[in-house]
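User: I've been trying to design a sequence by hand for this structure and keep getting stuck. Would you show me what you'd pick, starting by listing the structure so we're on the same page?

Assistant: Good idea, let's start from the same input. This is the structure you sent:
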């Protein structure tokens, strides 16, 4: 199935992201073929995303009403909020290269949030009240 996924032929950053997101979400696990596909299509950020996951820097935050966001910590002290369902990360790279310049369709933080779902032992879940969750969202 992976061999038939040639998303770049009709390249539009948002469409490419959505197809990638749907593809990864539907994969049951992170197989060698999926990793190879990620590297071929995201060679510039795939290793960074996997490194973020490997160092346990992905936190999945779930509200009482089942809303989900991810908090990703980089190598410094910065934390970014990612919302994969709506194609958003609060990092500068996402704003500049994805939204403004349309050079990329996602950053390594967003990719790490999507991939981390396939490696449950590498992701920490945090449950918040709806009020706490809203405050976190407003801090973006």
């Amino acid at each position: 199935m992976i061999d038939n996924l040639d998303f770049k032929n009709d390249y539009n950053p948002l469409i490419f992201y959505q197809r990638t997101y749907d593809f990864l979400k539907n994969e049951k696990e992170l197989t060698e073929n999926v990793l190879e596909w990620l590297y071929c299509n995201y060679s510039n950020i795939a290793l960074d995303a996997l490194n973020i996951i490997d160092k346990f820097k992905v936190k999945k935050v779930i509200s009482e009403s089942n809303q989900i966001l991810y908090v990703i910590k980089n190598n410094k002290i910065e934390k970014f909020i990612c919302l994969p369902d709506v194609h958003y990360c609060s990092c500068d790279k996402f704003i500049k290269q994805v939204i403004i310049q349309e050079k990329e369709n996602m950053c390594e933080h967003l990719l790490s949030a999507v991939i981390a779902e396939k490696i449950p032992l590498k992701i920490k879940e945090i449950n918040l009240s709806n009020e706490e969750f809203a405050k976190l969202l407003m801090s973006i």
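That's my pick for every position. To get oriented when you compare it with your attempt: The two ends are 37 Å apart (CA to CA). The CA atoms of residues 72 and 78 lie 8 Å apart.
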